[in-house]
Amino acid sequence: MLLNLRELQAFKAIAELGSLGRAAEALSLTQPALTRTLKRLEGQLGVPLFERHPHGMALTSYGQALVPHAGLLLSGSDEALRAVNELLGLSRGTVRIGAVSSAVEHLLPPAIERLLAAHPPLQVQIVEGLSDELLLALARGEVDLALGFSAAEDEDVVLVSESGWQEGCHVVCGAGHRLLARSPVGLADLGGERWVLPPRRMGPREEWQQLFWDHGLPAPAVAVEARSINAIRALVATRGFLSWMPRLLLGGAQPMPRPIEVLPVREVQAVRSFALYQRRRGLLPPAAAALRDELLKQVAALPSSAAPRRPRRAARG
Asked: Quick check: 5 and 70 in contact, CB under 8 A?
């Protein structure tokens, strides 16, 4: 059985908008035409996909099961057309890259510069976020590549390459913080400080929390949660907060009134490696493959740290 992409587009629009009328308007179709398209899909599958209500359409259990697969099929179709068009020269080509803040500031610029010098018509779209978020976006087809910190592979994403360069996060503070005069300090000395950190269930926050637990200490209260690295840096540099970040993020694109420094803490010996990921299934569009190759050069050029490191993973694909 082959599912028709036009029918899947109609199904997805109705599922997202909850109404035949709104979906028909979004697809520039008449409502009767959209109804016929939906009936053809339901007839082909032999099951009802929606329950009709006076105020809209509700997915049946069959429809709920189809939603994620319809999204993947449509995303794969878009990528296939984009790849063919790029090879035929019918479009400028776009590559979507997700990257953690430190990679956005230090690894992406030279790789993008080389890519655009070799392929001027290409366009690069950058999505900045935390590693966990970026891997989810990659699995959903929202980005073509994800450049973050090493994490476990799964059924959706696969490691392309891992760097030999390693540096973990550190406890950081403003240059005038009173604890610098006492350094090195212990984790037990940090319980009463004000902390600004990323939200719960994000990699850096979980790593920070685990550090305290591993040493038999409760994790300190977090006064401010922020997704913005600039907001975190501002609070650390100018308002006496502590945070948890790698050295690469201390400076930032905009200089702070006072610099941020690593606060030596006896128990902190974390290590992390940059890693590049792509989706496990499907082919990379040519534009994304070209950026992947430039990023592999950039990651390979990173100096190894003095810290012990895991065996380096070979590039795939």
From this structure: no
The two three-digit tokens of residue 212, written as one number: 């305290």
- Reading the block at residue 216, the tokens are 């038999």
Q: What is the 3-state composition of the chain as percent helix, strand, coil, each rounded to the nearest 5?
A: 45, 20, 35
pLDDT grade for 6, boundaries at 50, 70 and 90 = confident
273-279 and 157-166: which strand pairing?
A: antiparallel
Closest to 106 measured CA to CA, from 253, 307, 257:
253
Phi-psi region of 201 (alpha: psi -120 to 50; beta: other; left: phi over 0): left
pTM, rounded to two decimals: 0.52
What element of type H or E holds 66?
Answer: helix 61-88
The predicted structure's pLDDT at residue 77: 79
Tokens of 198: 């990323």
Q: Quick one: which of 248, 221, 223, 245 has its CA closest to 302?
A: 248
Query: Residue 203 and residue 130: Cα distance in Å, rounded?
Result: 7
d(CA 64, CA 57): 12
Residues with Cβ within 8 Å of 255's Cβ and at least 6 positions away in sequence, in order, are none
Residue type, 39: K
Query: Are the C-beta atoms of 134 and 127 separated by less than 8 Å?
Result: yes
